Amino acid sequence: MASSIAVSALPETPPSAARTSRGVTIAGVVAIVLIGLNLRAGITGAAALLHDLQQVLGYGPLIAAIIPSIPTLCFAVAGAATSWLTRILGLEKAILLSLVLLAAGLLVRGIPSTGMLLAGTVVGMSGLAICNVAMPSFIRVHFAQRTSLMTALYTVTMTTGATVVAVLIVPVAQQLGSPSAGVGAIGFLALGACLGFLPIALHAHRNAPAVKAARVSPWPLLRTRTGMLITLGFTVQALLAYAVLSWFPYMLVTLGLTAAEGGLMFGLMQLVSVPAGMVLVAVGSRPRMQRTAFYLATVTMAAGVLALLVLPVSWAPLTAVLLGFGLGIFPLVMVMISRSGRTTAETTALSTVAQSAGYLLATLGPFGMGLLHSATDSWTLPLILLLAVALGQIAVGHLLTARPKVSRRTEPHPPEPAAVESNGTPTLASTEAQS
Asked: What's the DSSP call for residue 67?
């Protein structure tokens, strides 16, 4: 059933289309910045207020475990639907629709009700999921010669937005007199992204190509070395990232810090991840240094989880710094996805399979930690299991960074013709040797 899902993407940009006006290029950069500011803000804002939301709305431990698990579930399900959506609407209009969903969902969360909190989170995170999958293809289409730079830009703005929201959301909620109003206020940031992306969508609509979009089936990718390793690497980093992002401030509050102090440490963690991502991308972009960059990120993440497990809460700043540096691995993975595939359609296919399968499995992180904490009334067992995953990420990074050596041996040879499905759709799995 899964193999019947096809991924769409815009056809490769012809040389004439590549000479876009300066205004369109500037609008594209602004759009990337505005979208980046929203890619984690809605998640980190809710995480910083989870304890207060539970106290005010009165929901139980099961709902408390479900709420931080909704984003990764939506990333898996709605992310897989991005292929259909981009094929019907086109890449840019699909992204615009996703931003509308994001803004609407975040604003709905401002209604002080458990049901509205759940519904708004589902709608908003579904919109966010479409953005997550579509952004690597958007960057490849509009900034083919600056893939690493634009990927770094949007991941830096992503962590910047998350940092600012994590630090300010508790004081904002206190000023508004309600944690629900605090999380709802984040929707206005998403409205800004909608307005900022509107010129790009209108330009794409006016200049839509007559050629039908290419289609590549994503799921056979899991039988290839590239697809398997990138999906595995994305899964592990996403599980660690969203387990930490969902529960770190709540954990600190239950260990003795105030909500404001927990939000400050959460903001520090996000702040460190901004330069960390830049450093890791800079190091990983150098020949033979990609593995070193992955080692720096994975070992630091493991050290951060270990510090959270064994050190007292007074050492929270050190823990936040270590975890923040470990979160910097995300731009590395996204750069690898953006550079993958021979066409934009193949890049979208790999982005779909890596993020859909990866986020589905990554849901075990935030959901499992919440349930285990409720069952044991302690963070010890959840952190021990998280440490095991962090140690496993080191091994995954070792395998993942072996790919460039294989690419250098095979790249000079001309690619073999792609196989075609029964419906005429070329598959990426047929263009790569089976692992």
From this structure: G
